[in-house]
Amino acid sequence: MIPGADEYDVSLSIAESDIDAALSVTPDDVDAASELTFARNVFLPLTTACRYTCTYCTFYDPPGQADLMSPDDVREAVRRGADAGCTEALFTFGDDPDDRYTDVHDQLDEWGFDSIHAYLRRACEIALDEGLLPHANPGDQTREQMELVADVNASMGVMLETTADVQAHGGPRAKVPGQRLNTLRNAGELEIPFTTGILVGIGEDWRDRAESLLAIRELHERYGHIQEVIVQPVSNNERWQGGSPGVEELRRAVAMARGVLPASVSVQVPPNLAPVRDVLDCGIDDLGGVSPVTDDYINPDYEWPAVKELQSIADEAGVPLRERLPVYERYLDEWVSDRIRAAVDADDAAGERYRAVLD
Questions:
Q1: Contact indicator for 71, 121 with CB cutoff of 8 Å
Q2: Contact of 181 with 212, CB cutoff 8 Å
Q3: What's the CA gap between 114 and 32, in Å, rounded?
Q4: Residue 315: which of 277, 271, 357, 266 has the closest Cα?
Q5: Pair 90, 44: CB distance under 8 Å
Q6: What is the 3-state secondary structure (H, E, C) of the chain?
Q7: Which of 22, 132, 165, 239 is the most buried if burial means most Cβ atoms within 10 Å?
Q8: Which carries the bigger pLDDT value, residue 305 or residue 321?
Q9: What is the overall mean pLDDT for the chain?
């Protein structure tokens, strides 16, 4: 049973036969992709506050030390990104940071926002004004929180990580898989193109990985909203010295994802966090978002590769490299809001940049 699933009324029916089938997938059972894609983004950590204290995460700062990007900081960063040819503004912050951090809550109140999601909406509007399409990844969200920002996002996301109850999530404020699944369900009900993924190596076993991927598949079959699934190995950092999964373990996990998920759902492996060249034949077709102007603030020890490095990876695989928008093209006609569609169609420099990627 998935922890917290009943509490959040996320009913999933994962058959034992499907688990067995997923566990049997090997790299030999999947085909290499015919192309690789990536997005050019600006990474904007609205705040380093988070109500969780996961033992592998260096992103969060304790109360009293967390920062909150100002609207001026957001505008400056997205302008630099637009000037550098980016199309995506990747907004991220810890789960419900104003729930635990008095300073963050007070600062938001001083700026005239009653919640971090109200501020996120304003930040997304700034990004759209300056010529970037927002993709927000603000952790667990209620339906009301997500609905508040849905129309100003081209797509959204949250890492499921695992459906298992692992010690790495432990403590008095532990992550609950049911809450994560509820966020995925909210996105489906609101028809938001969505990115999710699993984290490999935080204490889960192979059955847990199979159940996590099958849970994602079931929610996608119900709503059709999952555009890509990230298979991300945990990486050593100042808070996590438990090591990363080996190459063969990662190859099997990537192949399992490709074997379990529908062909329309992309499988991504982050090139700054994993030996991507070693899994090119395991079904990955996306290299994620990379930024020419900002760091990977969640994994600061691991720099983004330059686009020329991504081209080298694609050349080694013998396939073309194609840039994409934060929202996959198949969702543009019927799923995105009028505001996002208007931005893509606009007769201005930003619209031309978006359409150049589509062409």
A1: no
A2: no
A3: 48
A4: 277
A5: yes
A6: CCCCCCCCCCCCCCCHHHHHHHHCCCHHHCCCCCCEEEEEEEEEEEECCCCCCCCCCCCCCCCCCCCECCHHHHHHHHHHHHHCCCCEEEEEECCCHHHCCHHHHHHHHHHCCCCHHHHHHHHHHHHHHHCCEEEEECCCCCHHHHHHHHHHCCEEECCCECCCCCHHHCCCCCCCHHHHHHHHHHHHHCCCCEEEEEEECCCCCHHHHHHHHHHHHHHHHHHCCEEEEEEEECCCCCCCCCCCCCHHHHHHHHHHHHHHCCCCCEEECCCCCCCHHHHHHHCCCEEEEECCCCCCCCCCCCCCCCHHHHHHHHHHHCCCEEECCCCCHHHCCCCCCHHHHHHHHCCCHHHHHHHHHHC
A7: 132
A8: 321
A9: 87
Q: Output the six-digit token pair for 159.
A: 């890492």
Tokens representing 263?
Answer: 């062909």
Q: Are 305 and 271 contacting, i.e. CB atoms less than 8 angstroms apart?
A: yes
Residue 1 confidence (pLDDT): 58
Q: What would the pLDDT profile of 242-251 be if each residue is shown by its tens digit? A: 667 799 999 9
Mean pLDDT across 59-68? 62
| 71: its two tokens | 């609207």
Single-letter amino acid, residue 18: D
> Token pair 């010295």 is at which residue?
241
Task: Classify the C-alpha dihedral 169-123-75-67 as positive or negative.
Answer: negative
For residues 55 and 46, the model is more confident at 46
Amino acid at 138: P
Q: What's this model's pTM, rounded to 2 decimal places?
A: 0.91
pLDDT tens digits along 124-154 = 999 999 999 999 998 889 999 999 999 999 9
Query: 249: which 2 tokens?
Result: 């373990």
Distance CA 291, CA 156 (A): 18
Rounded to whole angstroms, what are the CA distances from 227 to 82, 196, 339?
A: 24, 8, 20
